[in-house]
Amino acid sequence: MIKINKKTLVVLFVSLSVVGAILFFVVLNINNNQPVIADNLRLDDQEATVRAIKKVSPAVVSIVVLENVESMTVNLDSGMSISSKDKVERGSGTGFIISSDGLIITNKHVINSAADDKQAEYKIKLASGKRYFAQLIGRDPINDLAILKIFDKNLPYVELGDSDQLTQGLTVVAIGNALGQYQNSVTKGIVSALGRDIVASDTAGKAESLGNVIQTDAEINPGNSGGPLVDLNGKVVGINVATDASGKSIGFAIPINDAKPVIKSVREIGRIVRPRLGIRYLTITPELAIDNKLAATAGAWVSAGDDGQPAVVAGSPADKAGIKAGDIITEIDGVKLNEKNTLLSVVQRYKSGQKIGLKIRRGAATIVKIAELDEF
After folding, report:
1. At residue 43, what are phi and psi to the nearest 5 degrees?
2. Would you please indicate which residues are annotated as catalytic (active-site) residues?
3. Which helix (H) or strand (E) holds 286?
4. Is 347 helix (H, G, I), strand (E, B) or coil?
5. Chain-centre distance of CA 40, in angstroms?
């Protein structure tokens, strides 16, 4: 039997009380901290979203395409006919200002609503309410992009991000002129996938193949075409281009890095110039390689499109270099082609007139071809 005097009892009781108090506060903090952390994360995300929208929205513009259409009126009493020209709205969409002197980037299919460039007018409205008429600088011959210009100074403009740094799950915001009437509407989602190849068609039924696009569940409604896809730092990482009407919340955007050569070309020489190799191709994925029993699991598979266009353009640099349908281009000047380093993105690093070395798988053989790029 252990004998404990009063002094020992007091010390033991005090010690147990201290331990109990510590345990109580630890448990209380655990229970209290988890909701606080979650609330802070939600608050941070919400604040970042609001900041990004406020940063970009002033530079987002709505675009209305007008065209002068000649009409004929007949006076039934006199039999005389009178012709007149009226401005008719042919289309609408979104764009965003990329320089303080008024350069605007949008989708080519937005301004293609006009049947005749000479008869077309491009009406621009800023979020501030200011209105302008824009000049068409040019269309991108290989991507769904176009550049317009309004003439003013000290205009709000966006900051361009780096789309090569995007990852699945990253939060993004799409801003646009939804349905042609709700200016600067905002939707929010995530990057659902990267490096998608799609075939998109406009309201006139004209189809265009788009490669290396970003898939997002931020809803992209009609009229949002040409608007910015923005990260939570308020930087533009993509240009909204299409939506899959057969699904829900499946939208697509052109990576901003694929648009940078167009912007650079306009800034340096005043027009859009793209280096051209002259092939149609599919970016190889492991699934595509298996389904088609290809000799390589990555690269650019030279193949004809569903619209009947040839795989190799006659008289193009690729044609002159001896590239054939069915070839798989695996490298350009030692750079391996894959879903991130697509043939398009690598070729755009060069200028017209430069020569590039192409490593090609043709059946079981590996060959090298030299092509001298020309321009569109």
Report:
1. -65, -45
2. 109, 144, 225
3. helix 286-291
4. helix
5. 30
